[in-house]
Amino acid sequence: MAPIPGSGLAKGLAVTLRTMTKKTVTAQYPDVQPELPPRTRGVIALFEENCTVCMLCARECPDWCIYIDSHKETVPPAAPGGRERSRNVLDRFAIDFSLCMYCGICIEVCPFDALFWTPEFEYAETDIHELTHERDKLREWMWTVPAPPALDPGAEEPKEIAAARKTADKLAAELAAEQAAEAERAAQAPRAEEAGQPDSPAAPPSGPQEGRS
């Protein structure tokens, strides 16, 4: 069946009419903050304690907007006779948000969870140089990182939590065993003292004794 001439135009005008008669809602920003989705890509925050200066984020960034400087320090051995180790110490971590395209690759490739998304988006500047956030500024954004969503009731327990719980249970079992051993030693101590005391001398028989012939 051939379409009726003008039916497409009529459908378009119907959509326009419905939109015109619908009540409009104006977002009262900035007086009223918008309700953003929990996974909003606003700005990147840095958790410096987790950063090992592996440089993965800087190498994978397609815009080359991450700047990292570091130096090596020698760590003394943990035990006598051990070997000294060297570690990387972070000197600078900066992100130029005037170049960043918010792809999130740096957050995805970080193996130690040092970078996080935060929904904050109000960081516009009049000077483009101010859009380069150094590590102190990136650390301040950590206070705005939302809490992770709750796990599904049927999901497996994270490996980190399972390992930590296993270690805690092992330590608790060792502590309980030590306390039980101490209690047993304390209970056996009076018995050992009683067993170690010499026998008391026998009392002389009572009554008259016959002399020997």
Automatic annotation (TrEMBL):
It is a peripheral membrane protein. Gene3D superfamilies: 3.30.70.3270. It comes from the Bacteria. Residues 172-213 are annotated as: Disordered. Keywords: 4Fe-4S, Cell membrane, Iron, Iron-sulfur, Membrane, Metal-binding, NAD, Quinone, Repeat, Translocase, Ubiquinone. It catalyses: a quinone + NADH + 5 H(+)(in) = a quinol + NAD(+) + 4 H(+)(out). Binds 2 [4Fe-4S] clusters per subunit. [4Fe-4S] cluster 2 binds at C61, C100, C103, C106. Residues 173-190 have a biased composition (Low complexity). GO terms for cellular component: plasma membrane. The keyword Membrane applies. The keyword NAD applies. [4Fe-4S] cluster 1 binds at C51, C54, C57, C110. It is found in: Cell membrane. One of its GO terms (molecular function) is 4 iron, 4 sulfur cluster binding. Its cofactor is [4Fe-4S] cluster. InterPro entries: 4Fe4S_Fe-S-bd, 4Fe4S_Fe_S_CS, NADH_quinone_OxRdtase_chainI. Its main location: membrane. Residues 42-71, 91-120 form the 4Fe-4S ferredoxin-type domain. PROSITE patterns: 4FE4S_FER_1, 4FE4S_FER_2. Its EC number is 7.1.1.-. Belongs to the complex I 23 kDa subunit family. NDH-1 is composed of 14 different subunits. Subunits NuoA, H, J, K, L, M, N constitute the membrane sector of the complex. NDH-1 shuttles electrons from NADH, via FMN and iron-sulfur (Fe-S) centers, to quinones in the respiratory chain. The immediate electron acceptor for the enzyme in this species is believed to be ubiquinone. Couples the redox reaction to proton translocation (for every two electrons transferred, four hydrogen ions are translocated across the cytoplasmic membrane), and thus conserves the redox energy in a proton gradient. This is NADH-quinone oxidoreductase subunit I. It comes from Streptomyces triticiradicis. The lineage of its organism: Bacteria, Bacillati, Actinomycetota, Actinomycetes, Kitasatosporales. The gene is nuoI.
